[in-house]
Design goal:
Elements (H helix, E strand, L loop, with lengths): L2 E12 L4 E7 L1 H4 L7 E5 L8 E9 L2 E7 L3 H7 L6 E8 L10 E6 L3 H10 L4 E7 L8 H7 L2 E6 L6 E2 L3 H10 L4 E5 L2 H14 L3 E4 L15 E6 L2 E6 L6 E3 L6
Parallel strand pairs: 7-8, 7-11, 8-9, 9-10, 11-12
Antiparallel strand pairs: 1-2, 1-6, 2-5, 3-4, 3-6, 4-5, 12-15, 13-14
Helix pairs in contact: 5-6
């Protein structure tokens, strides 16, 4: 059950020029969270809407969040220091269904943090396929390597790992192994490609949608998206009905 908590900042860390990690102590949230869920953070008095951040990891009563500084809200968050307190609402959303057996996690850019928590929570072996613009944008590489059986990194400019997108290495994995599911988070174009490859190989695919979220509890309907369930088209709320959806349920 979600609630609002006052959480003290334990540590902060720069991952790239624009991506940062923040850990907060919040026993009430940490003990409830499932991989794929998110929290909504109040970012100062001037910013009326909370900022949704996915969960990167949980250790004890500490919650780790990784975010990119994009606007006023995340800039305010970047300026916080250890010892200060954040107003956090969560956990929110439905989380991934983690099946028995081996899985593949696919992350693109700042879509990688929730996939790290999914990999940590998995019941079988995990193969990770991560995509970034270039070497300077790579995040969480060491953490993925510490919990996954294999990690493949693709960069669009070829400055690290495989040149290109996640499509090539993902198709190779799907073609040579039996996987119970593929879990993915990233830009819509990437999710479309991942879903198409999984459908071709007959592997269940779950995707985490990155939509603009307002209230975080399904009241404002800002994050509505078209879905199909049991043959019936309807509008679903990403914050409440998701953010995790079976790829077969949405028009990617």
């Amino acid at each position: 059950m979600s609630d609002v908590y006052s959480c003290e900042i334990v540590s902060t860390k720069m991952l790239t020029d624009t991506v940062f990690s923040i850990s907060v102590a919040c026993e009430g949230i940490a003990e409830q969270i499932r991989a794929g869920q998110f929290v909504n953070i109040k970012c100062g008095r001037e910013n009326l809407l909370r900022r949704p951040l996915s969960i990167c990891g949980v250790i004890g009563d500490e919650l780790r969040l990784v975010y990119e500084v994009k606007g006023a809200g995340t800039k305010w968050l970047f300026e916080r220091v250890p010892g200060q307190v954040l107003d956090i609402h969560g956990p929110l959303g439905n989380g991934f269904f983690l099946p028995e057996g081996d899985i593949i996690v696919v992350g693109g850019g700042v879509g990688c943090p929730p996939m790290l928590y999914a990999a940590t929570s998995a019941k079988g072996a995990v193969a990770a396929v991560l995509g970034f613009r270039g070497a300077g944008n790579i995040i969480l590489k060491d953490e993925f390597e510490s919990v996954c059986d294999s990690v493949c990194i693709a960069t669009e400019d070829g400055s690290f790992g495989i040149r290109g997108t996640v499509a090539g290495p993902l198709e190779e994995l799907l073609g040579r192994g039996e996987y119970a599911a593929v879990l993915a988070c990233g830009r819509r174009e990437m999710l479309t490609t991942v879903a198409s490859l999984c459908a071709r190989h007959g592997v269940r695919c779950q995707v985490s949608l990155e939509e603009r979220i307002g209230c975080g509890v399904g009241a404002c309907v800002v994050c509505a998206c078209a879905t199909v369930r049991d043959g019936i088209e309807r509008m679903s709320r990403v914050c409440k009905d998701g953010p995790i959806f079976d790829a077969s349920e949405i028009a990617l």
